[in-house]
Amino acid sequence: MVHGQGGVKFQNWAKTYGSSPELYFQPTSVEEIREILDMARQRNKRVKVVGGGHSPSDIACTDDFMIQMGKMNKVLKVDKEKQQVTVEGGIFLSDLNVELSKHGLALANLGAVSEVAAAGVIGTGTHNTGIKHGILPTQVVGLSLLTASGDILECSESINADIFQAARLHLGCLGVVLTVTFQCVPQFHLHEVTFPSTLTEVLNHLDDHLKRSQYFRFLWFPHSENVTVIYQDPTNKPPSSSANWFWDYAVGYYLLEFLLWISTFVPSLVRWINRFFFWLLFSSRVENINVSYKIFNYECRFKQHVQDWAIPIEKTKEALLELKAALENNPKMVAHYPVEVRFARADEIWLSPCFQRDSCYMNIIMYRPYGKNVPRLNYWLTYEGIMKKYGGRPHWAKEALAVLPTLSCGHHLLSC
Ligand SMILES: Cc1cc2nc3c(=O)[nH]c(=O)nc-3n(C[C@H](O)[C@H](O)[C@H](O)COP(=O)(O)OP(=O)(O)OC[C@H]3O[C@@H](n4cnc5c(N)ncnc54)[C@H](O)[C@@H]3O)c2cc1C
């Protein structure tokens, strides 16, 4: 008999959304999940499955039954010939990365963090960057779903092909994702080069940058022309690192958080912070080499609010310049750094923001220094207006006002 716990409080990673599920389950087998679904049917309850709980929106929240898949986290099969791996939906990518490297394999692309579950990370269409690379669900070649009726549905390009294109980005709505099969690549090292530039230079030479580096992205520092360009490319060189605790943590974390907190009383300080920290931390060239997942992943230190829409790639310049102009024309509106700009190849996944179009993702951020919410409504609305104007499609995991159905001041912590 499967046991459900009462009184559990769920909170997402950023502690921006949470819920109190009536019963919280951590099943260890398919049979146990079937029992939970039976119970839910009998009691007329909805069921939500949660992976790593990293989604910045309330997409994983429920007050009914919550299934946490952390105990269904095994690697089921490694097919060395096809370079494919089949895993249980609850495995964290941080564990999968290590397991794959034991077999000389890796995922071709990863988001910023790996403390996310295989089924969860694809469920919202997580992406990284690289115009030859699709969002993470494009690496999925098969999966199995346990539907609400208790049936198991296998799907891939050749079996239940329609359901496959829906389930690769499933939003947690199509059933419990039991297993996922990923197409892998041979293990590789990445050489990361970070160097300063300007918004004008990067936007005027976007195509060159996209061609020059396989995993090109850039960070724009709002209220300025400053940009950090990041190139990441496969290399045969051994690991080397220029990490420095003092600059990375003492300055880039503790001092920054303190100053961001001060700026909640003097918002205009944000302009100065963005310029000062660019000069302090990002104005010289830095290089790192390591195994791919250690370069793809980086530490996201601050709890934060984020929005991230995908627009047609050819609109990158216009949209970003419009956002810059909006900030210049509205002195009361402040924006934390960085605006992270990434790219992804078109795909055929029904709910993908990149469905049938090469895309630019523009991620805006407002930190929560010491857990304090910073007003962001104007910035959020201005950004969304620009994204919509250019045909934007919101990231499913993030905090688009357009897709949060019950958003109101206070209720969802949106400081007005
Ligand atoms: C610090 C940080 C960094 C991030 N970096 C990036 C980034 O670089 N790029 C990017 O695109 N996104 C990024 N994100 C967003 C993140 O990748 C997504 O929110 C992702 O979906 C989180 O995976 P998860 O396992 O935590 O999923 P959860 O948030 O737990 O769940 C996501 C969805 O999947 C469903 N689900 C989970 N498991 C199952 C299952 N077994 N069966 C059915 N449904 C299931 C849930 O119901 C929910 O709908 C970041 C988030 C944080 C907090």
TrEMBL record:
It is an enzyme of class 1 (oxidoreductase). One of its GO terms (cellular component) is ribosome. Its main location: membrane. Its EC number is 1.1.3.8. It catalyses: L-gulono-1,4-lactone + O2 = L-ascorbate + H2O2 + H(+). Residues 17-187 form the FAD-binding PCMH-type domain. It is a single-pass membrane protein. Pathway: Cofactor biosynthesis; L-ascorbate biosynthesis via UDP-alpha-D-glucuronate pathway; L-ascorbate from UDP-alpha-D-glucuronate: step 4/4. SUPFAM superfamilies: FAD-binding/transporter-associated domain-like. The keyword Transmembrane applies. The keyword DNA damage does not apply. Oxidizes L-gulono-1,4-lactone to hydrogen peroxide and L-xylo-hexulonolactone which spontaneously isomerizes to L-ascorbate. Belongs to the oxygen-dependent FAD-linked oxidoreductase family. This is L-gulonolactone oxidase.
